[in-house]
Amino acid sequence: MIRVEGLTRRFGDRVAVEGLTFEVREGEIVALLGPNGAGKTTTVRMLACLISPTSGRAWVGGHEVHAEPEAIRAIVGILTETPGLYRRLSARQNLRFFAELYGIQDARDRIEKYLRFFGLWERRDEPVATYSKGMRQKLALARALLHEPRVLLLDEPTAGLDPESARSVREFIAGLKGERRAVLLCTHNLPEAERLCDRILLLRTRLIAQGTPEELKRRLFGTRVVIELANPRPGIDAELRLPVVKSAELAGARLYVEVSDPHRDNPALVRRLVELGAEIVSVREEETTLEDVYHELMGDTDAQG
Amino acid sequence: MRRVKAVLRREWEEAVRIRMVLFSVSFFPLFMVGFAAYLVWQGRSLPPQGQAVLMNTALIYFFVLPVVIPLSIAAYSIVGEKEQGTLEPVLATPIRDWELFLGKALAPVIPGVLISWAAFGIFLIASCLILGGIPPGVLSPPWLLSIFALAPFTALFAVFVTMIVSSRTTDTRAAYQFSSLAVLPALIPLIVYSARLTAVNLIFVGIEVGVLLPLNAVTLYIALRLFRREEILTRWK
Q1: What's the average model confidence in pLDDT over A251-262?
Q2: For A90, which DSSP code?
Q3: Fewer CB near the terminus (10 Å): N or C of chain A?
Q4: Interface touch B6/A89, C-beta < 8 Å
Q5: For residues B181 and A90, which has the higher predicted lDDT (pLDDT)?
């Protein structure tokens, strides 16, 4: 649904985004992760045909960016960094304006459907200025969905929201998974990206890494198994010597063993330890978070930069 | 035109909720009508020739109205969009740049011109009531041309200037103050006629049109260049 090849954007001498190549398929939610100034918003703006790329190509819903901008804008729903609502107008007036811009035929029904869906129907005729931050964000989401777009570009959808509002917005995004849409979610909220997204794109002007959260963790940290021993014996880590063991390290009562596939390799590992006289209390996989991956990769680029 | 109409409707729905805009749109024309009518009332005992001179002087003030009214609407329109961050979602819709520009330009011009003409009409009715009729030689073709044909041009000029100024500022008051320079072309006939350098005549009206047309063309060109999607998103501060 979204295909990007070597997308680059410069503002004068400053490179905002360089050589981006990625894809977002139908039914997929993909996170664009990166610190402030990494180029997330610039990427979204290029995909929404708001600014043109300096070089490279991109297709959205089969239409090439800037060759067919109007066709793309008709199938893209965008949630910008700030809700960008007309605060003096009511929720209904805001949505009616956008319904007219998108040429929606059954605007009245569509507006009611989304205002009810986001729990804003009761306050539909009150000025948006009187809404809470969470309500405004929901209204901005309703606006992004009003024309039922096939592609959704969400820029920091939960930024600045209280935990309750953030949770309801996240629940809504999670609910999009079953639908036939492609969703590109810009965020620097790592747990949010891990929980909601099928794949992660790590961006810092250039694309640093991409994959599912699990793939990224494995690629960087491998898979470590933590074995708690009742009788830790110095040197047992060196004696393991199994083809499936990549590395082993004893720290206190815990033995950290790096393997490729715990499901496949753990039985052999446990057998070997028992042979070596170890009394095993527990065996578990070490938890690596996306945050560890993020800091590892961003730390690397910092060092290079 | 569907999208232009949508922009117009939205602009007006917002404008009627801004107290400053409502105040300047209603107070200024009322003040002008009241002031001009007072002038006429003071000369009610003069001979018809004297009444005509006085009424012609009063009419001059109606040149300024079609400039001042759109100024406040246009300043709030652009700066308000910037303050609220509403331009990006609008630009992400299939609306074309020219449709948005036309909607934004016409939203202040239409009420500006209509209110000016309405104020002029009210003044004429008031004068009729005060003097028992319009003195001869007042509503000559050059005068009517000045009021009805020049008003849209001066209003458009004011709006284009405001659009240019507003694209570079985030403060409504600053936009309004700088845009007030757009009143200048409307002040020229006021100065010329007040100083009695010439009487209202077709040649002078022609010169006014001759000056306003290229001025409008230049300001429209600059405003259109500033009103491109990318320009708005990356350079408007």
Answers
A1: 86
A2: B
A3: C
A4: no
A5: A90
What's the token pair of residue A242? 């199994």
Q: How far apart are CA A261 and CA A286, in angstroms?
A: 13
Say if the Cβ atoms of B89 and A103 lie within 8 Å.
no
What are the residues whose beta carbons fall under 8 Å from the beta carbon of A274, sequence distance 6 or more?
A: A280
Q: What is the mean pLDDT of residues A219-237?
A: 83
- Chain A residues with CB inside 8 Å of B93's CB? 73, 98, 101-102
Q: Residue A202: which of A212, A191, A210, A194 has the closest Cα?
A: A210
Closest chain A residue to the Cα of B86, Cα to Cα: A84
- DSSP at B93: S
> Buried (b) or exposed (e) across A144-172, using 16+ Cβ within 10 A?
bbbbebbbbbbbbbbeebeeebbebbbee
- Sign of the Cα torsion B94, A142, A154, A16 reads positive
The correct CATH number of A222-285 out of 3.40.50.1400, 3.30.70.100, 3.40.50.720, 2.60.120.260 is: 3.30.70.100
Q: Where does CATH 3.40.50.300 sit in chain A?
A: 2-211
Residue of A218 and A96 predicted with greater confidence? A96
pLDDT band at B10 (very low <50, low <70, confident <90, very high): very high
A296: helix, strand or coil: helix
Helical ranges in B61-149 per DSSP H: 65-84, 87-91, 97-131, 141-148
Fold of A2-211: Rossmann fold (3.40.50)
- % helix, strand, coil for chain B, step of 5: 80, 0, 20
Which of B19, B88, B90, B93 is best to mutate for the A interface (most A CBs within 10 A)?
B93
Please state, in angstroms and rounded to a whole number, the distance separating the CA atoms of residues B183 and A227.
82
Q: Look at residues A180, A187, A106, A173 and name the one whose alpha carbon lies nearest to residue A144.
A: A173
Beta carbons within 8 Å of B181's beta carbon, 6+ residues apart = B161
The reply to whether residue B92 touches residue A80, judged by beta carbons under 8 angstroms, is: yes
Q: Quick: pLDDT tens for A176-201.
A: 877 788 999 998 787 888 888 889 89
ipTM: 0.83
> Chain B interface, mutation test: which of A70, A80, A97, most B Cβ atoms within 10 Å?
A97
A86, A93, A104, best to mutate vs chain B, most B CBs in 10 Å: A86
Q: How confident is the model at residue A304 (pLDDT cuts 50, 70, 90)?
A: very low
A104: phi then psi, degrees, rounded to nearest 5: -75, 130
What is the least distance, in Å, from the CA of B232 to any CA of chain A? Answer: 10
